[in-house]
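Here is the promised in-class demo. Please do not try to memorize the tokens; focus on the logic of going from shape to residues.
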């Protein structure tokens, strides 16, 4: 009888671990899909569409070589000033190094970006902290350098 309950317990535990892993993969896939859409938006020259996926809050943080920019509007303005036209924007690509679910509603993505441009290529690394807010995954901290 003990063996019977042990097998049921192990089966239940295994099923729950598969369910948890599947839920994690689903959330990480959702974040990766947003990143793929951002690449398309950037490459079409649309900074405002690229920003869809960032938290529309004054609490958003963008950390770059010049320090911290606070807020969605300030971050959008920073992008528009730094990349005023498609020639400067170039073509963007990401290599995702890791994507890890730190908590049920928090994902950390580490990656490398590459901009192919006539004015000279640019590349660097980024860390994005994503949070699920009101049912949507959004970037709450972007550290790019």
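The designed amino acids, position by position:
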């Amino acid at each position: 009888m003990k063996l019977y309950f042990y097998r049921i317990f192990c089966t239940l535990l295994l099923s729950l671990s598969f369910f948890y892993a599947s839920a994690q993969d689903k959330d990480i896939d959702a974040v990766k899909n947003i990143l793929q859409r951002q690449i398309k938006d950037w490459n079409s020259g649309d900074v405002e569409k690229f920003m869809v996926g960032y938290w529309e809050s004054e609490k958003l943080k963008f950390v770059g070589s010049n320090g911290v920019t606070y807020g969605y509007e300030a971050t959008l303005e920073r992008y528009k000033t730094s990349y005023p036209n498609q020639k400067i924007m170039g073509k963007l690509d990401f290599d995702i190094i890791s994507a890890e679910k730190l908590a049920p509603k928090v994902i950390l993505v580490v990656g490398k970006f590459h901009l192919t441009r006539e004015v000279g290529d640019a590349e660097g690394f980024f860390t994005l902290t994503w949070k699920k807010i009101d049912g949507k995954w959004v970037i709450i901290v972007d550290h790019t350098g």
